[in-house]
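pinning this so it doesn't scroll away 📌
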Amino acid sequence: MSRTEVEPIRRAVLHALDLAEEDLYRWSKDLSQEELHARPHNLPSVAFQLRHLARSLDRLLTYAEGGSLTEVQLILLRSEADPQGTSEEILAELGGALAATRDRILAITSDFGEVRHVGRDRLPVTLGGLLVHVADHTQRHVGQAITTAKVIAALRQKD
């Protein structure tokens, strides 16, 4: 299915994911492992942003598909800020999550007006609203990752 055959809401989310992937790789691929985990000025690390994006996409799509989070997803949520993992591992997790997210979004056949429930409190949202949130949330964390990467680059130049 080409992107022009995809309805506007789904197409916009897929486009946001494409832009996110491009920007995240551009700004993180040259960071050393130490820089990837660095928290300059107490900012969340780039590694955290990449892991959070990968794992939150899985959680949000679970809700979009009408499911509830698993214990594994909750364990992964609690470990997002842990300063571990190589650049290759973290970027591979992100790449895999983005590819899986695209596939999952394209596989959704429900009406965008259908109600889904999010979180422990099972807050009601529409499927369309939840998919738009996937795009918004992704772009927010892309911006935060880029900001941290720019601070790291500026600090690198001072040395």
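📌 and the second one:
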Amino acid sequence: MPPRGRPRNFDRETVLRKALDVFWRKGFEHASMADLTAAMGLNPPSLYAAFGSKEGLFREVLELYRRHGGSGIWEAVADSASAREAVAHVLRQSARAFSHEDRPPGCLIVLAAPQSEGASPAICEILREHRTRNISVLRERFERAVAEGELAPETDCQALATYLATLQHGMSILARDGADGATLMSVADTGLAAWDALISRPPAPAPDPH
């Protein structure tokens, strides 16, 4: 490990935002210490003294992203007036956030993940936990919708939440590949139409036991 030094005076949130941009564009594993120190304006000893390690820096960057960079995608789900409103919000806000001109495309939590067998299993697990938590937020809102009568009692809330999170992750990859806001919004609208068709479909009749 590089020698520890005394970190020079700097605004922590400012340098974290610069590191966020690097991690967001390159992912955790491909963001080199040279990339990070150049963007943050810190020499390696100062960076290690302030954050301990690349992993420690990423953990702080991730918390900054959750506070500011997530663009309110998940925070409004629990308080949405209906499950449909929650779905519409997640998909359409994702389309807007993933194509915002002032930040890298897509979602850091989806795109920054290293390979599961790479050099950073701890980071991989942290990001997996964040993604799993988002699915849980949707599942809990759908379970409430079942209790309130908006969704049918036989609704598989876990499967429905996983499906929508998977669609949202795919939108992030599309954004990274260059899809513009209009394309992402069309995906969101199609996903919402699929939701309407799925929810309005009557349950399949029980098989005849005879």
